[in-house]
Design brief:
homodimer, alpha/beta, FAD/NAD(P)-binding domain, 3 domains, five-stranded parallel β-sheet, 12 helices
């Protein structure tokens, strides 16, 4: 029997699922139809800041697989075609061709929902004007680049999280004066404030203006209908272009309308097989789902390409007759703003508190290589552990070259439920060009003991 | 009661133990005497290749703590004073002042043995001539630098392990023509031969001559009594200077003479508290001990500063009234030869075989960053796992910038006993400047599945 798999959303999760399922089940056993409303399939949204900033010269470099490549694998991928309704009772989806407006129903046996996320765009005056840009899709990146072709000298980035700081870097690299306006006391509020302060100070040292504790109110427009300033609770910030870095939220209107289970974040709830809870033959992955935080035991929404790819693979294996699970995440994230590397995994202090855990933290400074080795770069490492049990809870790193990926040590240790004592004993790679004799992560663990 | 702690050997393990014990027990409760036969205390032997090569301009940069600094902490450190006998029955050591030849007995309540390792120097003609250098101590590094002040143009490095390749790099950086003569089919025999081949090819690409499968026979001397060539089973290799990179063996003659338990490697056997097996008040750490390989369950000799420091800390805590253990190692090592990074952890295939394990391996190529991000550098990753259980057994990486320290992911996973499946699911740091969307280690794990 040939089953029909319908995939809604042609990016990381959906197309990973489709490609993996195709590898395991040939066209005679599985027909695959995928719908993508945009102009591009399977691309790296995480790469958009580096394309906008000019590090990546070509948009097409961000595309992992074109529609043609997917079709050559026997996946019928319909571009510029938006799914506008999920009819779960009759096992069919209604789609609309965005070019000619025509609609059609397509039946399915298995459904994968990979509708992604959308940038938070505050419902405030001026925020929907041209020249105010989200950067979640290639189409949005392209629109921003078109704006930058105009005479832009001053950029205001609204939001100080990952997208905010990465876009601040991109604007600096394009030669603009950059102001980052954000609500929290420090940028990068996925870190504790003491670590976020290091990020702010470094950004200021790079010539950016950072305005903390500022609620955005309005984008003031010039006579051409384009931004001339952003008004926040902290004042008026001149701007020729405005970039939104307010984070994203799961794009789950379709799922909600179809009565599928959503969590508090608005993301779809799934089993660890990535099947939507309680639904036979309905799967979901990527930026539209919630994930289990293995450290706190709670569900969170984390939009990250690496999770989308892993979840897609799990769906594809399960659709292909195999058996795989996505056990959850530990909250790892790495980023950079120019030469400053930023990383975190596990729980920050407020998250530990919210999870009802008693904790202790230690903050240390160390270097990426042996202190005497050329290029040894400073980093600050903060480790948090549960009081009593000594179980590691979180790790945060801010530093220069060689800092960020050290967080993987913490990510694996958290997954294994290691204590700080066990971290101190880890047999990590040591040689002077790569690490001090005690890895900075272990220096933090020692301090914590 | 004031106890008397005697430390034999003033480098990493011994002085870490002394310093840690001192922090926990003041001079009124613990008197500490340490003996060091050399001119230097607490230095980074691992840094010697980079000092010889010129990356580290000053010898003193390698010294973590001078004798004066130790003395200021209340540790009575006697330099150029060699312990020549351990009298365990009468709880005393006999020492000799290497300047004036005088001898003395010193009683102890607690004894720490940190006598280190010595370079293997084959008992072959010419190998003890001036101009043939081991590089295990600062004194030896200094002697090599004096030789290099002469008109040296051709260096032969005997041995293709860590010290061999690091010294080959050092000689290249000093502008010498370099030949590396070694016995195994490929250099870096701590890797599988297919990975070692990548190292050889890279070294050849750097202009080094690599002579595999060659047994050293003799150093031919010129009329000045200095090397003119090394003779191996593969021919005659012209040399103005010869560097020994044949590895090291534990320096345990004193311990052997005192009847202390040694393992097959000649290293001291200890409990996980680092107390010498079955001996009250006798402790040992660093390059003179064997360590438990947590993956194979066997004991091995691994000379590495990071282990010495960790073991010294454990000894010091236990001496200070606390309780700590050194649980063993997983065999992690990172190194580089010029721009080529090399890393391994766990068991290579032959070691898995020797441990009686059925295994599978996978080898993949990936990049250090997202493929489209500037500076994405290629790396080859090999993962080995137990057949059936899927337990990860080993990880080997050869690549460019950003390759080596990824081995830490494997080191932590091995320590936790993770399966390949669990490695695929790990929440590792992802952003385009730091990693492809699947970390190379996970790409290898996927291939293995």
């Amino acid at each position: 029997m040939t089953e029909h798999l319908v995939v809604v959303g042609g990016d990381a999760a959906g197309m990973s699922a489709a490609a993996q399922a195709r590898r395991l089940r040939g066209p005679e056993r599985l027909r695959i139809t995928a719908f993508e409303r945009g102009h591009f399939s399977s691309y790296s949204a995480c790469g958009i800041p580096y394309w906008v900033g000019g590090d990546v010269p070509e948009r097409d470099a961000l595309i992992a697989r074109t529609p043609e490549q997917h079709r050559a694998q026997g996946i019928d991928l319909l571009m510029r075609t938006e799914v506008v309704e999920l009819d779960l009772d009759r096992r069919r989806v209604r789609s609309r061709d965005l070019e000619d407006g025509s609609e059609a129903w397509t039946g399915f046996d298995q459904l994968v929902i990979g509708t992604g996320a959308e940038p938070v765009r505050p419902p405030l005056p001026g925020f929907d004007a041209p020249g105010v840009h989200g950067v979640q899709t290639l189409d949005e990146g392209q629109a921003l680049l078109r704006t930058l072709e105009r005479d832009c000298r001053r950029a205001v980035v609204v939001g100080g999280g990952y997208i905010g700081i990465e876009m601040a870097e991109a604007m600096v690299r394009r030669g603009l004066d950059v102001t980052v306006v954000h609500r929290a006391p420090e940028p990068m509020s996925t870190l504790d404030p003491d670590m976020g302060r290091l990020v702010r100070e470094a950004m200021e040292g790079m010539g950016m203006e950072v305005v903390p504790g500022a609620e955005a109110k309005e984008v003031l427009l010039g006579p051409d209908g384009r931004p001339r300033a952003v008004v926040s609770s902290a004042g008026e910030h001149p701007a020729d272009v405005v970039v939104l870095g307010l984070g994203v939220r799961p794009r789950t209107e379709l799922a909600r309308a179809a009565g599928l289970p959503l969590g508090e974040s608005g993301g779809l709830r799934t089993e660890d097989t990535m099947r939507v809870r309680g639904q036979e033959g309905i799967w979901a992955g990527g930026d539209c789902v919630e994930v289990l935080d293995q450290v706190s035991g709670r569900y969170r929404h984390i939009a990250l390409g690496t999770h989308a790819n892993k979840q897609g693979r799990v769906i594809g294996i399960n659709l292909g007759g195999g058996s795989a699970v996505f056990p959850g995440v530990v909250g790892t994230a790495v980023s950079k703003v120019c030469a400053l590397e930023i990383a975190r995994t596990g729980l920050k202090e407020r998250e530990a508190e919210a999870a009802g855990l008693a904790y202790e933290s230690a903050v240390i400074e160390a270097t990426s290589r042996a202190g005497y080795y050329p290029g040894a770069a400073p980093m600050t490492v903060k480790m948090t552990a549960e009081r009593g049990s000594g179980r590691m809870l979180g790790l945060q790193i801010v530093g220069r070259e060689g800092a960020a990926k050290r967080v993987d040590i913490g990510a694996v240790a958290l997954t294994a439920g290691m204590t700080v004592d066990q971290v101190v004993s880890l047999d990590l790679g040591y040689a002077p060009p790569f690490s001090p004799v005690w890895d900075p992560v272990q220096v933090a663990a020692r301090r914590l003991l």
